[in-house]
Amino acid sequence: MTGILAEYDIRWTLLSAQSPAAALLDHLDGWRRLYSNNRHVVHVRESPASPKP
Q: What percent of the chain has pLDDT over 90?
């Protein structure tokens, strides 16, 4: 998943609260949960994406 986030320079996400991707982003370095409720989760990138080769 981290490769896709970097490849497309994704800086924020809006996911279902039950999504496995939302749980994964909670544990990835450089990402933080900005907002959540019982239906949705928003994560934002705290550090810039890796430079593209």
A: 77
